[in-house]
Design brief:
The protein is mainly alpha-helical. The chain is built from 13 helices and no strands.
């Protein structure tokens, strides 16, 4: 409770940012996937619609990561990211628990706001609460796809956030990767990559058929990326759990490199590689 009383603003920011992201994702999905949508009818190419949908969601992710709330909370927006930084020793156990709880609450809020705003267009096929389910090629490729995009995303986050030059561009890289995933990978798995997001849609739709895949694959993928990064650079190379630390807002994470004020004294191992 002491942790909650001190860090509740960050928890609420995580919840609000994920709620905003899912409302935008729901509106964009309806625009580009619902057959009666004017956007759907104006763009006959499914590949082009997916590309434009990816651009829209990539820009949304960039805006959230670089927003004042994203800068303060760290803009995890994803239990798999929070758990990975907890495993790396950068997030307290209490903070990890509350982050995950509020991320799930924010995701549920976003989905139910979308239901209120969009009604049957959102709840009926083909949108169907934007539930993440395997594509036509089956579970195995969906599992491989989810693991791969989670591994790639966490690898990018660790390399860029710990790099002196690239750290300010982590949000941009994250948005570009999300746009790429939606354009190319979504036919395989629907681009879940976020257990809170998948939980919220499954809960609202009461469709739990594929939920275990979208719960475990992102965590395993991100944990694998963290293990590889530690093997290459060591545990001390991880500076902080924030995705964007170019800010004067407070940081609640453990052993933060930026809080220690030793930028000029520490050797950036990622710089050596790149």
């Amino acid at each position: 409770m002491e942790t909650l009383s001190k860090h509740w603003p960050e928890y609420l920011m995580e919840a609000a940012d994920l709620a905003i992201f899912l409302v935008v994702a729901s509106v964009v999905a309806c625009l580009f996937k619902y057959p009666d949508s004017p956007v759907y009818q104006a763009i006959p190419s499914e590949n082009l619609r997916r590309f434009l949908q990816g651009i829209a969601m990539g820009l949304t992710a960039i805006a959230i990561i670089h927003s004042p709330w994203g800068k303060q909370s760290g803009a995890h927006l994803n239990p798999a990211i929070t758990l990975t930084f907890y495993r790396l020793g950068k997030v307290r156990r209490q903070d990890a628990i509350f982050y995950i709880l509020f991320q799930c609450m924010g995701a549920l809020l976003g989905i139910y706001l979308a239901i209120l705003l969009l009604g049957a267009v959102f709840t009926s096929p083909p949108i169907n609460y934007i539930v993440t389910v395997p594509g036509m090629r089956g579970w195995m490729l969906a599992l491989a796809g989810e693991f791969t995009i989670a591994f790639t995303t966490m690898s990018m986050v660790l390399v860029t956030t710990n790099h002196k030059t690239l750290s300010r561009y982590t949000g941009l890289f994250a948005g570009c990767l999300l746009a790429l995933y939606i354009s190319l990978e979504s036919p395989l798995s629907g681009v879940g990559m976020n257990p809170a997001r998948s939980f919220a849609s499954a809960f609202a739709a009461q469709n739990w058929m594929a939920f275990p895949l979208y719960l475990f694959a992102p965590v395993l993928g991100m944990f694998s990326a963290a293990e590889l990064y530690q093997f290459l650079f060591g545990r001390q190379a991880v500076k902080c759990a924030k995705l964007n630390h170019h800010t004067h807002r407070r940081c609640i994470f453990l052993d933060c490199y930026y809080q220690r004020g030793q930028r000029s004294d520490l050797v950036d191992l990622s710089d050596r590689l790149l």
